[in-house]
Amino acid sequence: MKRFTLFALLLLMGLSQHSFARDGYHIKLKFTDMKDSLVYLAHYYGKPLPTIYKADSAKLNSKGEAILDSKEKTLGGIYIILLNDKKTYFEFLLDNGNEMTITATASKLPEGLKFEGSPENTHFQEYVTFLKDFGTRQQKLVDGYKAAKTKADSTEYREKIGKGSKELIKFRQNYAAKYPGTLLSAIFNALEVPEVPEGTHYLPDGKVDSNFSYNYYKTHYWDHFNFQDDRLVQTPIYDGKLDEYFNKVVLPWPDSVEHEADVLLAKARGTKDVFKYTLWWLTHNVENSKIMGMDAVFVYLVENYYMKGDATWLDNDALSKYYDRASKIAPNVIGNVAPDVNLPDAKGTVQSMYNVKGKYTLLVFWSPDCGHCQHEMPVLDSLYKAVLKNKGVKVYAVNVDNEDTKWSDFIKKNKLEEWTNVWDKDHNSDFRSKYDVYSTPTIYLLDEKKIIRGKRLDHSNIMSVIEILEKKDKTTKR
Question: What is the pTM for the complete model shown?
Answer without folding.
Answer: 0.82
